[in-house]
C-alpha cells in the first residue's frame, strides 16, 4: 500500500493504476475518517490513466476533507495524459496541484 504518515497531520499516498488506485483511496478514506481529518498529498507519479471510478473516489475524498473531516488535499506528480483528464473534466479548477512531493509537502505546511 502506498499510504505513509509524513507527520502527525500529513498523509502522503503514492498512487498507481487500478486496481491499486481504488484500494489505496478506500484505505485513505477510512484513515481520514478515523483520524477525524488530515492533510493529504496524493502523488500521481505512478498513475497513467484515470477512469470514472477513480474520479468519483477523488471527489469523495475532496468532499470528506472539505466538509465532514477537516483537512487539505493536494495532488502532485501528474503525467500529461492524466493532466488531460483533469483539464477535459474541469477538475483542474477543483483541486490544488504541485509539481512534485517536496513542493506539495511545502505547500501543505505553509497554507492554513
In whole angstroms, the N-to-C terminal distance is 28 Å
Mean residue pLDDT:
91
Per CATH, the superfamily is STAS domain
Number of helices: 4
Lateral strand order in the biggest sheet: 1-2-3-4-5
**Low-confidence runs of at least 5 consecutive residues:** none
Order of helices and strands: EEHEHEHEH
Amount of helix? 40-55%
CATH fold-level label? Transcription Regulator spoIIAA
Q: Compute the CA-based radius of gyration.
A: 13 Å
Class by helix and strand content? alpha/beta
- Number of E-type strands: 5
How is the main sheet built? 5 strands, mixed
CATH architect. name: 2-Layer Sandwich
- Overall morphology: globular
Please identify the top-level CATH class: Alpha Beta
Strand content: 15-25%
Domain count, please report it: 1
Task: List its salient traits.
47% helix; alpha/beta; 112 residues; five-stranded mixed β-sheet; 4 helices; single chain; Transcription Regulator spoIIAA
How is the topology of this model organized?
Elements (H helix, E strand, L loop, with lengths): L2 E3 L4 E7 L3 H16 L3 E8 L5 H17 L4 E4 L3 H10 L7 E2 L2 H10 L2
Parallel strand pairs: 2-3, 3-4, 4-5
Antiparallel strand pairs: 1-2
Helix pairs in contact: 1-2
Descriptive notes:
The chain is an alpha/beta fold and 112 residues long. The chain has a single domain, classed as Transcription Regulator spoIIAA (2-Layer Sandwich). The protein is 47% helix and 21% strand. The chain is built from 4 helices and 5 strands, in the order E-E-H-E-H-E-H-E-H. It has helices spanning 20-35, 52-68, 80-89, 101-110, and strands at residues 3-5, 10-16, 39-46, 73-76, 97-98. A 5-stranded mixed beta sheet has the order 1-2-3-4-5. Helix 1 packs parallel to helix 2. The longest helix is centred in the middle third of the chain and has 17 residues, at 52-68. The chain is globular and about 35 Å long. The model has no long low-confidence stretch (mean pLDDT 91).
Amino acid at each position: 500500500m502506498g499510504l505513509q504518515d509524513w507527520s502527525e497531520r500529513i498523509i502522503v499516498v503514492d498512487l498507481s493504476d487500478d486496481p491499486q488506485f481504488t484500494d489505496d483511496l478506500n484505505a485513505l478514506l477510512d484513515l481520514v475518517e478515523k483520524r477525524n481529518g488530515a492533510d493529504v498529498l496524493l502523488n500521481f507519479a505512478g498513475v497513467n490513466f484515470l477512469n470514472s471510478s477513480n474520479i468519483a473516489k477523488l471527489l469523495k475524498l475532496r468532499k470528506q476533507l472539505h466538509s465532514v473531516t477537516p483537512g487539505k488535499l493536494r495532488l502532485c506528480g501528474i503525467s500529461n495524459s492524466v493532466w488531460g483528464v483533469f483539464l477535459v473534466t474541469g477538475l483542474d479548477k477543483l483541486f490544488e496541484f504541485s509539481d512534485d512531493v517536496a513542493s506539495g509537502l511545502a505547500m501543505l505546511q505553509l497554507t492554513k
